[in-house]
């Protein structure tokens, strides 16, 4: 992961201040996610955060490198039964981080990220991130694409005093 000043093409941040805030968050989050102990991400999630993973690919495709993720996918087309769908929806920050910790090691290519600020108010920031990643330390090719949606709340929301309060829903790996 490159920790230099990132210059993304086609991004919609709204302002230079917002761009710097989001880029700082992305660098810190994905540094921990890719290279650190993912338990360090606990502070990034709100106590009532929700998370799900969606993989739009055919699990019978032996060539797909996303097969590892498919069993965790909450794809409504392939995930049969309400109990399984409920089980795959993570409801608290410890559950989310524990889940993230069992996923394969990755390397996100921050230079490939395209960021779009969808909503910005005094009480919420919602932005999407599109980009590339690959599993590490294997030499598998980079996956064709991913889309993360982050919903961020200010630190001073009552009831939660985390360092950076973030709800991240959902992570979508696109084929």
From TrEMBL:
It is found in: Nucleus. InterPro entries: NTF2-like_dom_sf, NTF2_dom, Nuclear_transport_factor_2_euk, NXF_fam. This is Nuclear RNA export factor 3-like. One of its GO terms (molecular function) is RNA binding. The keyword Transport applies. The keyword Nucleus applies. Keywords: mRNA transport, Nucleus, Transport. GO terms for biological process: poly(A)+ mRNA export from nucleus. Its main location: nucleus. Belongs to the NXF family. Residues 21-134 form the NTF2 domain. The gene is LOC102814858.
């Amino acid at each position: 992961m490159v920790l230099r000043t990132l210059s993304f093409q086609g991004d919609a941040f709204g302002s230079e201040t917002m761009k710097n805030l989001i880029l700082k968050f992305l660098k810190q989050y994905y540094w921990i996610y890719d290279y650190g102990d993912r338990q360090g991400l606990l502070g990034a999630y709100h106590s009532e955060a929700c998370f799900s993973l969606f993989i739009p690919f055919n699990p019978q495709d032996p060539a797909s490198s996303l097969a590892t993720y498919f069993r965790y996918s909450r794809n409504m087309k392939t995930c049969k039964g309400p109990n399984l769908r409920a089980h795959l929806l993570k409801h608290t920050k410890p559950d989310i981080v524990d889940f993230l910790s069992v996923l394969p090691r990755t390397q996100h290519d921050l230079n490939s990220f395209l960021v779009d600020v969808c909503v910005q108010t005094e009480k919420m920031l919602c932005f999407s991130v599109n980009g590339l990643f690959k599993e590490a330390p294997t030499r598998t090719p980079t996956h064709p694409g991913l889309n993360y949606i982050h919903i961020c709340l200010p630190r001073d929301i009552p009831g939660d005093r985390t360092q950076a309060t973030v709800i991240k829903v959902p992570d979508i790996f696109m084929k």
